[in-house]
Design brief:
The protein has 12 helices and 17 strands. The chain has about 475 residues and is α+β, with helices and mostly antiparallel strands. The N and C termini lie close together (about 10 Å).
Length: about 475
């Protein structure tokens, strides 16, 4: 590596930016990671730590055989992901999901980046698009991009950034939950990373209690939207609980409050099974905090306490954090980015993470991982292709760089539907669907990702 080589600049110290910086440095290229906190805060962040989790503490399913998110986890681990490494270290019980202690996780990522000799961390706000003189740049400012930089992006692309609301669920102090009513159990007793099969606290409702709760949700007082927020849509994958309730009285019972796969050990012989169940998931390693799964909300704080304390088992709940909403922004990636995540009008600039329109922690980090490798390879003069669409990484990149319709582009979580089509047949030659097909696609993804990684590793060594 030449001593005169310019560093690559990464703007944004969230999951995508942290992962991008790590991957660049791993390829032997110096990097400057710019993070505006604590110089300038956001409406959602509470600390100045890198890769702070502002919503859920869950990385979702870790099942690499039947779930596309689990496949993405496995691919990222194979590629030396910092986010997955520190996520595994900070894991807390969560059934078949990978959930983390958010403080342990952020501290681990921050410490790793600060200790790397090729990574410099600059605490400053970037308010304009960097010029070519700055060298290669990755913008990974996430859903809470500062107003000045967002305006600069809009002015350059000629396209209004789309926006939607993301919601934060309340967190409850564990010892304030009445365990004579609630009980520990994962749905279908399923265990996962750091799990035991008893990874959630379950609060049951009978039919009368459930309908009273829905009525309370729908008649509670809510915070008013600012004028600029009124036409901003919600992201379907993080819908506020009151919005779900307004879509029909049974909606929550077939969503986050579904009672299936759970058996109440407190029930008496003449009791029916719960009509609905509120689940809480461990939020820190000590197990002293649990968050209410699927209970993101825009209710006023006093109303949240009043309504949520009607849930059996939470009558005396102490809330360590109440719910809230924040606005997310993302660019129209299929229109403004090329296949290597570069801004078409300024190819020295790449975008990564949620701002590209991939929704979810691991999805954001995975795009940061590939963006970092692409930028470093370009800096080193290497021929570096993105992963094939048969993989979870490749499927996401294909979606945001042209696979999606630019006219109707919306944020997307990773899913098997984004991956290249695969005909799967049984021993009789008939096409199969469902779990069997998912397992075949998952196996293909991991095999193709491994081949892709080996090929690119060979290219790097040959150079």
């Amino acid at each position: 590596m030449s001593k005169e080589q310019k560093p690559i600049h990464v703007i944004g110290g969230g999951l995508a930016g942290s992962e991008a910086a790590w991957q660049i440095a791993a390829m032997g290229v110096p990097v400057v990671l710019h993070e505006m906190r604590p110089v300038r805060g956001t409406d959602a962040h509470k600390t100045d730590g890198l890769a702070e989790l502002v919503c859920s503490n869950s990385f979702r399913s870790d099942d690499a055989e039947y779930n596309a998110v689990g496949v993405l986890h496995a691919e990222m681990r194979h590629l030396g992901s910092l986010i997955m490494r520190e996520g595994d270290k900070a894991a807390v019980p969560a059934g078949g999901a990978l959930a983390v202690d958010r403080d342990v996780f952020s501290d681990g990522v921050t410490a790793a980046l600060e200790a790397h000799p090729l990574i410099s961390i600059s605490r400053e706000e970037i308010t304009a698009l960097p010029s070519e003189d700055m060298g290669r740049v990755i913008i990974a400012t996430g859903p809470l991009t500062s107003g000045a930089l967002a305006e600069a992006i809009r002015a350059e692309t000629g396209e209004d950034s789309l926006a939607f609301f993301d919601a934060i669920a309340p967190i409850v102090e564990t010892d304030s939950i009445d365990m004579d009513v609630a009980w520990y159990q994962s749905r279908y007793d399923k265990s996962g990373p750091a799990g035991t099969g008893k990874d959630y606290i379950n609060c049951p409702m009978n039919k009368e209690q459930y309908f009273a709760f829905i009525e309370a949700l729908c008649t509670a007082e809510y915070l008013d939207f600012k004028q600029w927020e009124k036409d901003t849509p919600y992201f379907e994958g993080c819908m506020p609980v009151e919005v779900m309730a307004s879509r029909g009285v049974e909606t929550l019972r077939f969503g986050p409050m579904k009672p299936v796969g759970l058996n109440n050990p407190h029930k008496k012989e003449d009791d029916y099974e719960p009509y609905a169940v509120v689940q809480l998931r461990q939020d820190n390693a000590l197990g002293t905090l649990y968050n209410m799964v699927g209970f993101q909300t825009k209710m006023k704080y006093g109303e949240q306490v009043r309504v949520f304390k009607t849930i059996p088992g939470l009558e005396n709940a102490v809330f360590a954090r109440l719910g809230g909403l924040h606005r997310n922004t993302f660019i129209n990636s299929p229109l403004v980015l090329d296949g290597q995540l570069r801004l078409k009008k300024r190819p020295h600039i790449r975008f990564a993470g949620q701002i590209t329109g991939c929704e979810g922690y691991v999805e954001s980090a995975s795009i940061g991982l590939i963006a970092g490798r692409l930028a470093a390879a370009e800096q080193l003069g290497l021929d570096f292709d993105t992963p094939p669409q048969t993989t979870a990484h490749g499927a996401l990149i294909h979606h945001i760089t042209g696979g999606a319709d630019a006219k109707t582009f919306q944020p997307m979580n990773v899913n098997f539907g984004l991956m290249a089509h695969m005909d799967v047949r049984n021993e009789r030659g008939k096409y199969v669907k469902g779990r069997e097909k998912k397992k075949a696609m998952a196996g293909r993804a991991l095999e193709d990702l491994s081949k892709w990684a080996d090929e690119n590793e060979s290219v790097s060594k040959a150079a």
